Amino acid sequence: LQVFDEDGKNVTPHPLFQSDPNTAVPRQGKLYFRVFYLTHGSSSTWISNKSTTKSVLDGTAEPDSGQDPTLSLPAVQVGQEEMEEELTEADLDQRVDIYLSETDTLWMFDMPSVMVSVEAEDAARVLERNKIYVDICKTKAGSERFEERMVQTLAGAAKNKEVQCETIIVEDKGMMVTSWDLDNSFNASEIEPMSRAEGFGATTGGSSKSPTTKGQEQTVSISSDRGITTSSLMIPESAVPVRSQEEEKCHSEAILTSENLKQDLVIMERILMENIFQPKLAAYRQIPVLIEPDITSDRSDKVTATEEDEEEEHDKEKKDEGKEEKGFIDPSMKINKTPEEDAAPRLEQLWCYTCDLTSGHSVSSMAWNKVNPDLLAIGYREFDSKDQKKGLACCWSLKNPMWPERIFRCDHGVTAVDFSLASPNLLAVGTSRGSVAVYDVQSRNDAVFLDSSASLNKHTGAVWQLRWVEQDRGATGGDKKERLMCISADGRVTEWLIHQRLDCFDLIKLRRTERDKKKLPGEKERKSEAPISQHAAGMCFDFHPEDTDIYLAGTDEGHIYQCSCSGKEQILETYRGHKGPVYRVAWNPSSTDMFLSCSADWSTILWHRDSQTPLLTFSSVTAFVHDIMWSPKSAFIFAAVKESRVEIWDLSVSIFNPVISHTANPEANLTSILFAKNTNCLLLGDSLGGVGVWELFNLDAPGSNTV
Question: Where is there biased composition of kind Low complexity (predicted)?
Answer without folding.
Answer: 205-215
